[in-house]
Design brief:
Layout lengths: L2 E4 L6 E4 L7 E3 L6 E3 L43 E2 L1 E2 L12 H14 L1 H31 L3 H37 L13 H24 L1 H10 L3 H6 L7 H9 L4 H21 L5 H19 L28
Parallel strand pairs: 3-5
Antiparallel strand pairs: 1-2, 2-6, 3-4
Length: about 325
């Protein structure tokens, strides 16, 4: 069975295969290199005092050896561990400045993947525009009514397909951003949602759209309130914290007391996106969708108390004291 243990630096719960005992791996949250000792439950902090680093040199190389190099890499292959998300939702009040600054820093720290996501969204939109133009030209050129009707149906199906692909990519960007905001190191492949997860995300997005539409039909203000109340529902579903309908209850609970802040963040995002697109003659449009999804992810994880800094702080690593093994008692 998999081995679960706690990172001594950031207290993240980690899981590795059972054949990884004795090997070294890197924590995906804090980057600490740890040695997998064996199958054991996570242990709480028992020793309090200044941190004492483990003896250098790695396993099998005593510090006094002539081959010892304190700057040498670990002797065994280092791999990234798979984090185990045991975060419990604990609603918190967020601030405008901290949330936006964290989003900004995370975005530019991971600008490469987000550029790739923006390029994919742009590429899909560009391709669908070309196909739509071809169909429009065919509609003008063809005089047969049956052919025109057939081409009209084809154009409608292309539009539905483009909307579905765009939602699929938007959901993937949101899932990637949630894991990033929680202190994980997701691979770029996390952008591509499995089909069953996409169907659930599609259902949540559709229900959210209906609720917002009903609110805006009644009056503008109820629509804005409902949008802010259920703003985090898609993120809660993609994070696996709730089902399709339960996600709306989770969003309502964690956004309570934060809705004005969320509204301000939305307005700031729209204003900056508009200015960036105008200044760069449209080039910044590649990054508007990825940044927006990251902002949603940071808002969700901070409101729910799941953000990386909301977990046990790395400063608590100083309470972990490394105790060397006692030498054997030789009679």
């Amino acid at each position: 069975m998999p081995i679960e243990f706690q990172c001594p630096a950031c207290q993240a719960i980690l899981r590795v295969p059972d054949d990884a005992a004795g090997k070294q791996a890197k924590c995906p949250r804090c980057g600490q290199i740890v040695t997998v000792l064996g199958s054991q439950p996570p242990q709480p902090d028992l020793a309090i005092g200044p941190a004492v680093p483990p003896p250098p040199g790695g396993p099998g190389i005593p510090p006094g050896s002539s081959d010892f190099n304190p700057y040498a890499p670990p002797q065994t292959q280092v791999s990234y561990l798979s984090p185990v998300d045991r975060g419990v939702i604990e609603p918190q009040i967020i601030s405008f400045g901290d949330t936006f600054n964290i989003t900004w820093r995370l975005f530019f720290d991971n600008i490469g993947p987000y550029l790739g996501m923006g390029a994919m969204v742009f590429g899909i939109s560009f391709l669908m525009n070309i196909l739509s133009s071809v169909v429009n030209v065919a509609l003008v050129a063809v005089g047969d009514e049956e052919a025109i009707a057939l081409l009209g149906i084809l154009m409608f199906l292309l539009l539905l397909f483009a909307i579905a692909v765009n939602l699929w990519l938007q959901g993937g960007m949101l899932r990637y951003s949630i894991e990033l905001a929680k202190g994980m190191r997701p691979s770029f492949g996390r952008v591509f949602l499995p089909f069953n997860l996409f169907l659930g995300y599609l259902a949540v997005s559709f229900i959210l759209g209906l609720v917002m539409f009903a609110g805006f039909v009644l009056l503008i203000i109820p629509g804005i309130i409902l949008m802010l109340m259920f703003y985090c529902a898609p993120a809660a579903y993609l994070d696996g914290k709730a089902g399709i309908m339960e996600a709306f209850t989770v969003s309502r609970n964690i956004t309570r007391g934060n809705r004005l802040t969320i509204f301000g963040l939305m307005l700031a995002n729209m204003f900056l996106a508009f200015v960036a697109i105008v200044v760069t003659c449209g080039l910044a449009g590649l990054l508007t969708a990825p940044f927006f999804n990251l902002l949603i992810a940071v808002i969700y994880t901070r409101c729910a108390g799941l953000f990386a800094s909301a977990r046990p702080a790395m400063a608590q690593a100083s309470t972990m004291a490394w105790v060397p093994a006692a030498p054997p008692n030789i009679q």
